[in-house]
Design goal:
heterodimer, A: alpha+beta, 3 helices, 4 strands, disordered N terminus, B: 132 residues, mainly beta, six-stranded mixed beta sheet, two-stranded antiparallel ribbon, 8% helix, globular
């Protein structure tokens, strides 16, 4: 994934924010989108960051993913997780 | 196939706020986060960290006990419940790290009636005030 395509994914919903304010993720779409992804298997065991329903950073280190996702999408609060190995049940 | 009941949460420390996911574990008496997540939240440098022996399926393991400023439960894009000054355990060594955060019976299960619906692959939370 190149930086330009990631940047585009992060900015299409850009809105005015107060200083220091960040969006919470659009949880329902992001979380459910994430859990329904059929190709999530390639990320199993890796840390990922999700913004606007898209994976914007992956790495073996959570800290690296957090930093990279904030660098790429500074106005968003990325969903950070290590991809589980099992299937999941939704709330 | 056994499905894992996962819920989105937000972990808040004095310096960080990180949305992530957690496993609802009715078999866990306490709640846990990953060692690496604790590093991201910068809670391991807290001078009040305590060492606690916990009996696990794999034998007794040592965990670090800290308090998060807040743990929030999120569904449908909204925070629907907060736990302030939340006690959490962290594996003392990264080699013994957890696959995800775990919410045990010390938190969400005390506030909500939790129903696992295996056939529909869902679970529900009903606040005990509104449960019959």
């Amino acid at each position: 994934m190149n930086n330009e395509s990631i940047k585009n994914k992060c900015t299409y919903t850009k809105m005015k924010l107060a200083e220091g304010e960040r969006f919470m993720p659009k949880t329902k779409s992001e979380f459910e989108y994430l859990l329904s992804m059929h190709d999530l298997g390639k990320y199993v065991g890796k840390w990922i960051a999700v913004v606007d329903g898209k994976i914007v950073s992956t790495a073996d280190s959570g800290k690296e993913v957090l930093k990279e996702s904030r660098d790429k999408c500074p106005e968003r609060a990325p969903l950070i997780l290590k991809v589980p190995t099992h299937s999941v049940m939704l709330l | 196939m056994i499905l894992l009941p996962l819920i989105q949460i937000e972990l808040v420390s004095a310096t960080e706020s990180i949305p992530t996911i957690a496993l609802l574990d009715s078999g866990a008496t306490l709640s846990f986060i990953q060692h690496e997540m604790a590093e991201m939240l910068d809670v391991l440098s807290d001078p009040n960290v305590s060492l606690i022996d916990v009996a696990t399926a794999g034998g007794t393991r040592q965990f670090k006990g800290v308090r998060l400023s807040k743990l929030s439960l999120i569904a449908g894009g909204r925070i629907f419940s907060d736990f302030s000054n939340f006690p959490i355990l962290i594996p003392s060594q990264q080699a013994n790290d957890l696959p995800y955060a775990i919410l045990g019976r010390d938190s969400i299960f005390k506030r909500f009636h939790v129903t696992f619906k295996e056939k529909s692959k869902k679970f529900t939370l009903v606040h005990h005030k509104y449960a019959h």
